[in-house]
Amino acid sequence: MRRITIGPDEAGQRFDKFLHKYMREAPAGFFYKMMRKKNITLNGVKCGGGERLAAGDEVCFFLAEETLEKFGASAQPALDTSEYEQAFERFGRLQVLYEDGHILAVNKPAGMLSQKAAHSDLSLNEWLIGYLLETGQTDPKRLATFRPSVCNRLDRNTSGIVLCGKSLEGTQLLAEQIRSRSIRKYYRLMVKGALVGEREFIGWLKKDARTNRAKIGDSPAEGAVQIKTGVRPLMQGRLPGGIAFTCAEAELFTGKTHQIRAQLSHAGYPLLGDEKYGDARTNAVCKGLGVKAQLLHACRVEFPDCMPEAFLPLSGKVLTAKEPAIFDTLRGFLKEELD
User: Fold this and answer.
1) pTM, two decimal places
2) What pLDDT is recorded for position 75?
């Protein structure tokens, strides 16, 4: 018989989901059969699999060790953590903007993936687990049943705030808050052109998976989803060669792939340094000034005033992340501050 106690990382999930993670090689029907026969119990009683786990719950497996090993349970404590350690070593100690037992907010640098695009990639997701291993907040045994992860993604070359779940409860909360748009997300950006007046851009976005580009239309179309972005100009100026540009702040009211980049380019205000949606002549000037990627930075996150009891410290909290140094370089060409 094997007995395990549910920790905070496993709490909140369905019991059958936990069993699938704990014994990854077992077929689904096996668990339900074992629960019916009381060979798997929860807190000493018969269970059905739909129960929500809580920290401190006790799970008992009245199964032979050979059976547990056959279905992968014994191998999980020996989880290979080398890629997480490698990611932490490669990227170092990133700027952590907020951290508690459930949530971590980090300032992602441009050039770093939020999540893997290929099996061999190292991303912020791997760095997060490497950081938690380095600081003793998780271990290979806990990672066998729950792996912390990023909850919102930024493009590789977009910098700024990424929210991460350290516990299952934190991950679920952030996912729901992001899905419902309860968390407000703001971006600092620089675009070509004289953008005047606070505006709300509305369009329809369709992703081309083959080219990894977003196409924007002004009316509904098959396969397209409506997107909405609010933009407030802050300052205007001119780059060398007389190219007008604007420093602005954007708020996402929807969150789709390349939304800000594609939507502003479609409206005639491409981001400076954006190789995919930008203006080639303007980008050439920007490269001469040291711009290496699109000037787009997730600068601020605002949490709602009413948060669940376990997350009260986040109620009304505002997290900010300073823009990369290249923004300061281009601010030297900004002259006119806008109301």
Assistant:
1) 0.81
2) 52
